Amino acid sequence: MTTVARIGRLKGPLTIRCFTCAHQVTWSVAEAIRRFGGECMVTDARRRLACSACGERRSRCVDFV
After folding, report:
1. How are beta strands 62-64 and 14-18 bridged, if at all?
2. Longest C-alpha distance within the chain, in Å?
3. CA–CA dist 43, 39 (Å, integer)
4. DSSP 65
5. Along the 65 residues of the chain, how does pLDDT read in single tens digits?
6. Model pTM score
7. Which residues does 2 contact at the CB level (< 8 Å), separation at least 6?
8. Which of 25, 30, 59, 64 has the most CB atoms around its CB within 10 Å?
């Protein structure tokens, strides 16, 4: 499984997209680590996210792209 820190090292800034309303935000790796911790699994981080535009919280509604 991939951690937040590892995906950041591989991809650089993280773009988080809501599948419900297509809202996107971009976080630096440091911001993602601050919010979730570097050892947090990406699947766990997805479950904790909520879209700031539409409020959707379904675990599959967001993705790191």
Report:
1. antiparallel
2. 29
3. 12
4. -
5. 688 777 767 667 888 888 889 898 888 888 888 998 888 888 888 888 899 999 988 755 555 65
6. 0.69
7. 41, 42
8. 64
Determine the structural domain holding residue 59 and report its residue range.
Answer: 4-64
Tell which residue, 9, 29, 20, has the closest CA to residue 52. 20
Tokens 């950041």 label which residue? Answer: 8
Q: Distance between alpha carbon 15 and the CA centroid of its chain, in Å?
A: 7
Identity (one letter) of the amino acid at 9?
Answer: R
Number of domains in the chain: 1
Sheet of strand 14-18, all strands in order from the earlier edge strand to the far edge: 24-27, 14-18, 62-64
Residue whose pair of structure tokens reads 């599959």 in the numeric block: 60
